[in-house]
Amino acid sequence: MRKKVQLVRHVPLLLSALLAACKPLPDDRHHMPGASAERGREAIERVGCGSCHVIPGIRWPKGRVGPTLGGLPRQALIAGKLPNRPDELARFVRDAPSLVPGINMPAMPLSSEEARDIAAYLYQMDAR
User: Fold this and answer.
1) Buried-most residue among 63, 76, 100, 116 (CB within 10 A)?
2) Is 28 domain-assigned?
3) How far apart (Å, rounded) are the C-alpha atoms in residues 81 and 115?
4) How many Å apart are CA 44 and CA 122, to the nearest integer?
5) Residue 18 falls within a domain, yes or no?
6) Do the Cβ atoms of 92 and 79 come closer than 8 Å?
7) Which stretches make up the Cytochrome c domain (predicted)?
8) What is the mean pLDDT of the chain?
9) Which residue in 91, 107, 71 sits closest to 81, CA to CA?
């Protein structure tokens, strides 16, 4: 009986440890060496990503066809399918239909570098 009481005392500590293990990884998981968030913002405006998405820091347009991109750095998945990693986001921004068949987002006229810049911009949005 005494061991059961001691075990029950440790349940809150065990639950706290489990919750701490669920914390998101540090922000450096979205680090994009060589990419420029400022060039990414310019590319977003040039190709018109805001026509379909609300994007923090992009004043106009604020389309509602696609999901808002605010909070993207905190999401576990991109489009509910892909791991939210810099390489996957850059590939997705450039050619979403090849990665998620049936998605409404079209392939975008972007170079690999521009897609990386856009990913850098999208990842740093919450830091503003």
Assistant:
1) 116
2) no
3) 19
4) 10
5) no
6) yes
7) 35-126
8) 86
9) 91
Q: What is the CATH number of the domain that holds 61?
A: 2.60.40.420
DSSP assignment of the chain: -HHHHHHHHHHHHHHHHHHHHTSPPPGGGG--TT--HHHHHHHHHHHTGGGT---TT--S----SSPP-TTGGG-SEETTTEE--HHHHHHHHHHHHHHSTT-SPPP-S--HHHHHHHHHHHHHGGG-
Count of structural domains, the chain: 1
Range of the structural domain that residue 57 is part of: 37-124
Query: Does 7 reside within a domain?
Result: no
Q: Lowest mean pLDDT: which of 9-18, 48-57, 110-119? A: 9-18
Is there a domain that residue 19 lies in? no
Residue with the bigger pLDDT between 39 and 126: it is 39
